[in-house]
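Translate sequence into structure tokens.
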Amino acid sequence: MLLGKELEWRHLRYFMAVATELNFRKAAESLFISQPGLSRQIKQLEDVLGLALFERSTRKVALTAAGNYLMEEVGFMGNHMESVVQQLKQIAQGNLGELRIGFLGSAMQNIIPELLLKLQELHPGIQTALTELSNRAQLDQLLHDKLDLGFVRMARVPADLKMQPVFEDTFSLVVPEGHGGKPFRNLNQFQDTGFILFAQEYSPYYYDTVMSICEDAGFTPKVAHKSVHAQTIFTLVANGMGVAIVPTSFQEGFKLNVDFIPLDHLPQRAVLSAVWKKSNRSPVLKHGLELLFGEDKV
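Result follows.
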């Protein structure tokens, strides 16, 4: 397949091998071709493009700025082609295609189950693939065409993506069952207690929101533990290792020895949003978005 008068897919495949290994000998071995033959192919590619993709010396091989850019773009093309092939296989089997969904664990409380039930009822020919990922990992996979739809808690996303809220929740304080017989008055009575939070790298927006809730109450929380799983957080609270602040809907689906104290008087809200790539033309994504928001709002 020609990409231009002289540029072919094999040139890009050879380029990616060298860009990954940064070693012509190892790249040639992985491609099962000779090292001189690989060098000629890379030189031909550079001649066609009219620029250098690698900086070569007797000691090392490094990508130029142009080489780094090409590596990113070829990686994107490869991911997109992989997606196209997967969709073709689904269509060949009589399905409409596959909807690849990334999500934070909290989306599994209600949003995703409801979406899956609607898809099954109205579009049984759509297959789904679900992957639990952090906010940042979802954005990366959406941008590189490895996901079609994500569910995140973020204030903003890159310009190539579109984000729309799907669920707004209040927060609750999670304490050990019975919380020592002490009545709840206000949040600052826990200022000397350790807090168990979702890790900042998992959801920076959520982490910052919880910090702001405590700061509005007049203190900075003492972070005792961090986790990326609600189950772990609740288990730690139940065992007296600290308290936590989580979206109120988290109390559904867990049977642990903890109490939820509503903080619905606070202005902060836990907003779960759907996010997708604007240029994604998948018909199955369109069906999914219509079920989430309605045909006139997509």
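Note: DSSP finds nine helices and twelve strands in the chain.
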